[in-house]
Amino acid sequence: MKGTKDGRKQPDFVPFHNMHIQLYERQYSEVLPSILASIAVYSETSKNDTLLYLSYYARGSFYRKKGLKDEALASMLQAEKISKNIKNPPGNVGFYSDIANLFFELQQYEDALQYYLDLLHKNDFSANKKLQGAIYNNIARCYANIDKHDYEKAESYYKKSLAFYGEFQDSLNLAAVHLNLGDLYFEQYKDRLAVDHLKKALLYSEVSEAVDIKDDIYFNLSLAMESAGQTKKALEFYKKYVEQLEGIWNRDRIWGLAEQEKKFIVDKKQTEIQLLEKEAKLQKMQLDTKRMQSNTFFSIAAVLLLLLLVGLYSYSQRIKKNRVIALQNIQLDELNATKDRLFSIIAHDLRTPVYLLKESNLRLKKALIKNELTDLEKQLDLNINMTENTYSMLDNLLYWSLEQKNGSFYKKEQLPLHSIVGQVLVNYGNALKIKDIRLDKNIPEGIQVYADSNAIKIVLRNIIDNAIKFTQDGGSIKIDARIYENQAEIVVKDNGIGINKAMLDTIKSGKTVRQKDTSGRTSTGLGLELCRIMTEKNGERLMIESEEGKGTSVKIVLELVKK
């Protein structure tokens, strides 16, 4: 029992009851003080392990809802520790599933895997068939992502997941699992199996709920078809992938996402500051309560000393809190500056291609009405080229913004260089055809390098894209690979307009440079900056040699996998 202001006793379950009502009524802005009060009561007064476990569980769920995953995981693990003193903890399966999902979202795949496997032995796990399908799918993803990839076990659990979802004819989850299984086979260079499962994923993705994964299915099918040597089909799927993106990444969507992301960052920082303030107020209330309950027979000198110590502690805590808030304000200003720069680039560089695409579509409509097939085909090629260039610009902007926020993740692995270059080049067949540029590729098969797959593809894509943009119609581009001791070199050389010495010195100094291409359009300069950042963070080297009017040569030095 706990005392009230009028001296009466209130039952110990009241804090938990208040917390439960606020959660039920979705009063999320007011529930955190109730959760913290509930934790304080059941840990210090009543020692009720069940309500204390549920209180920590509620705090973890609240933090997770607010996007504070590390804090959510800490609360969940504290709840798990307490649950060991309870014979049958309520919501046991859902609780362990939440912990496993948090580890997975934080990319701690070994820990996530252990919790998912433990779930299989829970008494009430087998009662929920749909949950079993999700758990088996997540176990498979863990095996595929841990440092020592266990593809055999991943394949086994993906098939178990398919069996459960097939029983309920759950098209959305069947499409997602077939997509994951196709990716798994593709990573093992089992192209035929990869294509089979990706086609099944495409079949199940016809439901409206699967629209968010359909572009991934088209893109992965294009890569798998290219790897299997079916270039024509690969191009068809890639065109469908571009069409899918056009329906999603329109101009209003781009601005909407940017505004939502900015609002999310600001709201998150404000929420963190509010949480710090509320926890500080709760701590002060607890200190005041303990002070009021202290023994009144202490001497006046002891009371004065205690008050002095409390004052010093409060002052130090206030200083510490002010420092935290000041640091967060600085970080918020940096994020706002990055966002302002991103919006400026989007406003400047996307307006022109969007306007040109609009005008081109009008000409396309006129050609279609007049049944002028030659003009129609030529206009379609131009539309595809503009769409590819705009998408490449968006891709660069995305990775650049992630770099500015330190949000990117690099993981080196063994990669086949010939296959990686082939996957990148599939995007540029149409652009090479439009400018009648001859491409010579000399990448010996069997060269294996250590690199991050996404990073090396982005670097190659930007370098090849620049080579095409700054090479005149009828020109040539050559891609070679050479081996020197424990290193592999990729050289992309063109006979385009080149770079003058002053501009080349500026690029080598690490500064962004804007230059007009052969069509008279000015580049953003983000491509080379992104290449430089990614090669440095991967422990690689990027070297540029050029002479105005005689073309440009870009060399990437990678770590070679020794046989």
Tally of individual helices? 21
> Architecture of the domain at 414-560 in CATH?
2-Layer Sandwich
Indicate the proportion of strand residues. Answer: 5-15%
Q: Give the C-level CATH assignment of the domain at 414-560.
A: Alpha Beta
Give me the count of strands: 9
Keywords:
single chain; 563 residues; alpha+beta; Heat Shock Protein 90; globular; disordered N terminus
Folded structure, characterized:
It catalyses: ATP + protein L-histidine = ADP + protein N-phospho-L-histidine. GO terms for molecular function: phosphorelay sensor kinase activity. This protein has helices at residues 14-24, 28-44, 49-65, 69-83, 92-105, 109-119, 129-145, 151-167, 171-187, 191-204, 211-227, 231-248, 251-292, 300-349, 351-370, 373-404, 417-425, 429-434, 453-469, 501-508, 526-537, and strands spanning 2-3, 9-10, 413-416, 438-442, 448-451, 476-484, 487-494, 541-546, 552-560. It has 563 residues and is an alpha+beta fold. Among the domains are: 255-288 and 299-349; 350-400; 414-560, Heat Shock Protein 90, CATH 3.30.565.10. Helix 2 runs parallel beside helix 13 (251-292). The chain starts with a strand and ends with a strand.
